Amino acid sequence: MPLLRTRLVFILFLFSFLAIIARLGWWQIVQNEALLTQAKAQRWEEKIIPAKRGEIFFTDSYPLASSKSFYNLYAFKPEIKISYQELTEQLIKIFPLEKKEIQETLESDLLWVPIWKHLGEENREKVLSLQIDGLELEEETGREYPEASQAAHLLGFLGKNEKGENQGYFGLEGYYDHQLRGNDGKIVQEKDALGRPIILGSYYKSTVKNGIDLQLFLDRQLQWIAEERIAEGTKRYGAQKGLVIISNPQNGGILAMATYPDFDPSNYSETESKLFLNPAISETFEPGSIFKILIMAAALDSGTVTPQDICSNCSGPVEIGEYTIRTWNDQYYPESTMTEIIQHSDNVGMVYVGRQLGLEKTLAYLERFGIGQKTGIDLQGETTGKFKEKKYWSPIDLATISFGQGIAVTPIQMIQVVNAIANQGKLIPPRVVQGIQEKRQIIKLKTAKQITAMMVNAAEQGEAKWTKIPGASIAGKTGTAQIPIQGHYDPEKTIASFIGFAPALKPQFTMLVILYEPTTSPWAAETAAPLWFDIAKDIFLLKSINPK
Amino acid sequence: MVNKKKVDRNRQLITVLSLITLVLIFGQVAVFIYFGGQGAKAAQINQTKNDLIRENKQLKTEIFRQTSFSSILEQAQKAGFKQANSTVYLEDQLPMALKNK
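The joint structure predicted for all components is written out below.
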């Protein structure tokens, strides 16, 4: 009997030990990871310090895009101490949410349920004032646009990538995304049972690296004017869309870039995606007569012609193979000088210049001016038109390119060309963020002066002379280009443009205005040119530039 | 024969060491109690700092909102300002001597 009792006690102890060992094994082996995580969560507080996205400033240091905190509201169900019904009642007092919707969310299987996203500061205060346990606010960085949709195409927008992280798309936000983003920091600190930090406890910190701020060449006043004017002009001339680029020829800085219609970067999800493309850099067009200044500059620079040379075949249409080239108004000016060819925007005269220049030199100068290559502007989404190989060029191609047809360029490439002329023959790539750009002499100073004089004459005596600013010294050129559609040109639709700089002898700005498919008149002299001069008048006034 | 003097000295030494140990223990407890309380204070300071940063940011945003061109335009229109219809450029005045020529 005593032996039996001893055995029973032994067996009891044995099972007890086995049970304890099994339980310890369960905790230490099977539940190891979960318990470790729980212990860490009890002992350590890990806090991510989100990097502040770099801000983007106009040249006067006013923000074009600044960082702003938004909050996502979550309910952590295990910590909620009131009934779901009571919680719902409290929440619908401050949020425009359906009672049923909140209750369904709270009754889901999740422990951590999202209630409302993208709360502003005001709503955050309201949530905090409720003082309800279990309601958590998660901070996220977003964008604030003090000038609303200004320079939207140039700016791009801040969206979310597939991981749900902030990512810049298009324009500056896309191009400088990596630099603007920065790197998040982290603080890991020991905490006590009440969740307060232990001063003498362990503490690890990885430093947050905020994104860099961008200081632009963009002028707030000019941008405002450009946006107002292009919106008004596009409507006035019944155009599909309009575009203005204003640049500083001395440093290639973009002072304004406006497109109409534009979009609201803070509401990008409600915008048609085709509107995100910036036509100034992402769309090519046939430039038409504004391209004549480039071909003429090439002919002058290579010594092929001089401003006083006479055109020997300007008395009527020119036949090239099966094609007949005419002037825009079917008027002909025999014995025209090169200056008069630009003044009259004479296609036939330009065919003469193109023939004198020849294919070899034409292609060489196109390359020098950066046509067919991206300008390298610091905006995401730049494109370029491409040339066909030299062996495929025919005489009609050389003829049409001389007056800006049969070639595709981007508006920003045309600004680069005119900047080089205004900048005494030195080419500077266009740039949006302030920085120093290298200059490259691509045509002689003398050529730049000659072509400037021709452009001044064209602005004063050409078909847009009715709209000029009296007494102002402006170098400019109109361009009316037909639109190629399925292998032929649309007989009615045009792209009207005016490009130039002022004051002609000491240029402070270059500007390009383009109106796509204007309906009040197809001609640039009656649409883009008056708009150009209207904007120029505002610039003279605001920037105290003596237009003479 | 046990040296009584030596025993007394050892006893005294143990007493002193015990006292030092006790002082150290209580000291450590006191220090930890003190810094334990400071943790809450540190958390409070951190919270205040974050609130001030947030408020500063809000004020900055408000200043930018108030000084945006669209806001200025709205205020100017309310105040009765109108867009200028035409611009007159004033010429540099010629010296009297040249004027008389």
